[in-house]
């Protein structure tokens, strides 16, 4: 971390990044934020100083380690510094730099953010945690010149305890590197836009010396919905403490002693079960002598048999659609109103389920889905041909998976964890992704594990060696679009005997709003509508299909899509990127799902 004092040696060191990777910010330090939304939380959102650091010089030359940096940069120094925190332009956090600054639309390098903040402790032994809800992709955090660690992954939260480093006046510098690289998750080739920056909320959180770090409250799996299991994890010196759990709506109030920082409750209770028709949530309060958190938790059971999915013992068809987080004005930044509008568009289609593709969406999504009674598939960006034989890539993927599950496993709406999308069935991929399924099961035994798989196009059969590790067989198929011969779809279904429920995670085709033509004209609304009619007619007759989430709810930005109809957008949406103009295919899905609604 020490600078050599020799300016040239510092900037010529190509291994400059290694020292910033010594401390990883990962799921092992992740605390559960869902129950801490009011007191003790301070937002660091707002205008930060920002520079697009094309050559990564902030890290190469370790700017934050300069003694003058806390006070503001160039004007405080007798040496010529190449940065000037307070003179840099201001940019909103959260936002993607691509959409915040027109000239950064295609910028994929390192962006350096900085701001100051003042801290006055409220009690002598309080701890201060700095939390990022999402930053794309590699984030290195510096406080008062000290590197606090680095996080990888564009869509999951992370936090760092800054108690030992924080002062009364503070300078925070955050370098966010959005490069696409072959060993990242995802790798450099995807079918969506690579937004960069601090695009989700940044927070400060005060917690006591021993605090409630996490909890997992759910129905005991083998209990026929008559027992609640709650695990509570404490962090801090006095990691053995009395932990109280109360669920007033169920008359539950129990106290036990934690051991080695964990308190595990098993409680007889028969909660009213959460479902899309009645999304019942219970207030849950967890407390120790000096800390308490509240959460709203729904209880439900999701299971499968040979071909079907059962919610609370009743067979359910997942009437869904896939959706990206991408928003024409905000990119990957979102807000509650946008999430609620997305759910409204689903409900107007008589749907009950969303596939949140292809990476973890904002944490508010699952909380709102809990309230609204929507079922969710959540996924990590193990997408296409990532570096399956690279140990560092596995570490990154597994960490993103763990961060997602720890963030959302108290959300009743989430019924499926997906470990990836459209990955060719190689040995290296089988090892990599089967390990991920094991990781899921070690963190959460109450949900279904899936992946969106490719079908065997040569043999025309649904098969994938990974299926042995999955509860639900996710399948993407584009018959009538990438493969123009639609007649292969009924053949594929007739040839297949998957032995488990199949969810068709994707089908579809592109159509541009306003583009009319015949049912044979690619990219016309009529073509897309007709394709949807054929898909629906075929899929609904297949006994092992337990759900559909066509591709996709809204058109989204995509630099790979460059023909005259696409112009930088994937146009397979049922609704235009304006999120309001519905295409005729939307109504085909609405009619299909309405028919299925009891
Ligand atoms: C797929 C991918 C999805 C693409 C889509 C398409 O199979 O899973 O990410 O965007 O096809 O439009 O080609």
Percentage of residues in DSSP E strands: 25-35%
CATH topology of the largest domain: TIM Barrel
Going across the biggest sheet, name each strand in turn.
21-22-23-24-25-26-27-28
Q: What is the CA-atom radius of gyration, in angstroms?
A: 25 Å
Bound chemical compounds: (2S,3S,4S,5R)-3,4,5-trihydroxy-6-oxo-oxane-2-carboxylic acid
Q: What are the segments in which pLDDT stays under 50 over at least 5 consecutive residues?
A: none
Molecular structure report:
By secondary structure, the chain is α/β, with parallel strands linked by helices. It has 3 domains: 9-207, Jelly Rolls (Sandwich), CATH 2.60.120; 211-300, Immunoglobulin-like, CATH 2.60.40.10; 303-596, Glycosidases (TIM Barrel), CATH 3.20.20. It is built from 10 helices and 30 strands. The strands form 7 sheets. Strands 21-22-23-24-25-26-27-28 form an 8-stranded parallel beta barrel. Strand 13 and strand 14 form a beta hairpin. Helix 6 runs parallel beside helix 7 (427-443) and helix 9 (525-539) runs parallel beside helix 10. The longest helix is centred in the last third of the chain and has 18 residues, at 391-408. The radius of gyration is 25 Å and the shape is globular. The chain starts with 6 loop residues before the first helix and ends with a helix. The relative contact order is 0.10. The mean pLDDT is 95. (2S,3S,4S,5R)-3,4,5-trihydroxy-6-oxo-oxane-2-carboxylic acid (GCB) binds at residues 191, 358, 421-422, 476, 506, 551, 570, 572.
């Amino acid at each position: 971390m020490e600078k050599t004092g020799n300016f040239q040696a510092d900037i010529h060191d190509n291994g400059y990044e290694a020292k910033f990777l010594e401390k990883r910010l990962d799921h092992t330090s992740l605390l559960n934020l869902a129950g801490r939304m009011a007191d003790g939380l301070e937002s660091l959102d707002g205008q930060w100083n920002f520079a697009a650091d094309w050559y990564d010089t902030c890290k190469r030359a370790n700017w934050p380690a300069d003694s003058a940096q806390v006070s503001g940069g160039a004007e405080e120094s007798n040496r010529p510094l190449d940065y000037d925190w307070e003179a840099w332009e201001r940019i909103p956090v959260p936002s993607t730099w691509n959409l915040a600054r027109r000239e950064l639309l295609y910028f994929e390098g390192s962006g350096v953010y900085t701001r100051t903040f003042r801290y006055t402790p409220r009690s002598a032994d309080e701890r201060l945690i700095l939390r990022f809800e999402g930053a794309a992709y590699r984030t290195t955090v510096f406080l008062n010149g000290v590197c606090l660690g680095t996080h990888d992954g564009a869509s999951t939260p992370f936090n760092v305890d800054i108690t030992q480093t924080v002062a009364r006046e503070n300078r925070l510098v955050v370098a966010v590197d959005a490069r696409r690289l072959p060993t990242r998750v995802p790798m450099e080739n995807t079918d969506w836009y690579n937004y960069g920056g601090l695009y989700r909320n940044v927070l400060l959180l005060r917690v006591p010396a021993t605090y409630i770090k996490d909890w997992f409250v759910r129905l005991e799996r083998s209990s026929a919905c008559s027992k609640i299991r709650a695990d509570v994890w404490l962090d801090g010196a006095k990691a053995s403490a009395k932990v109280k759990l109360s669920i007033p709506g169920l008359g539950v109030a129990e106290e036990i002693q934690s051991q080695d920082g964990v308190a595990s409750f098993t409680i007889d209770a028969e909660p009213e079960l959460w479902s899309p028709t009645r999304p019942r949530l219970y207030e849950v309060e967890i407390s120790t002598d000096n800390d308490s958190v509240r959460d709203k938790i729904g209880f439900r059971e999701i299971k499968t048999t040979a071909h079907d999915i059962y919610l609370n013992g009743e067979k359910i068809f997942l009437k869904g659609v896939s959706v990206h987080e991408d928003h024409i004005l905000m990119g990957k930044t979102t807000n509650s109103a946008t999430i609620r509008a997305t759910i409204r568009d689903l409900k107007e289609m008589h749907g009950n389920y969303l596939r949140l593709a292809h990476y973890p969406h904002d944490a508010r999504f699952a909380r709102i889905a809990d309230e609204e009674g929507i079922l969710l598939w959540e996924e990590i960006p193990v997408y296409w041909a990532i570096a399956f034989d690279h140990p560092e890539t596995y570490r990154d993927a597994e960490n993103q998976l763990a961060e997602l599950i720890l963030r959302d496993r108290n959300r009743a709406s989430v019924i499926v964890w997906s470990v990836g999308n459209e990955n060719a069935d190689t040995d290296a991929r089988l090892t990599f992704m089967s390990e991920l399924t094991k990781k899921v099961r070690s963190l959460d035994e109450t949900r279904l594990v899936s992946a969106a798989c490719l079908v065997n196009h040569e043999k025309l059969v649904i098969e994938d060696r990974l299926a042995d590790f999955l509860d639900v067989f996710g399948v993407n198929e584009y018959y009538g679009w990438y493969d123009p011969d639609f007649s292969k779809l009924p053949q594929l279904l007739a040839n297949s005997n998957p032995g488990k429920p199949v969810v068709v995670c994707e089908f579809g085709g592109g159509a541009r709003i306003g583009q009319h033509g015949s049912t044979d004209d690619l990219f016309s609304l009529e073509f897309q509508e007709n394709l949807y009619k054929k898909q629906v007619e075929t899929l609904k007759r297949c006994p092992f299909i337990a759900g559909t989430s066509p591709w996709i709810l809204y058109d989204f930005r995509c630099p790979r899509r460059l023909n005259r109809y696409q112009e930088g957008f994937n146009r397979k949406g049922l609704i235009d990127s304006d999120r309001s103009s519905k295409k005729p295919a939307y109504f085909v899905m609405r009619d299909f799902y309405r028919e299925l609604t009891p």
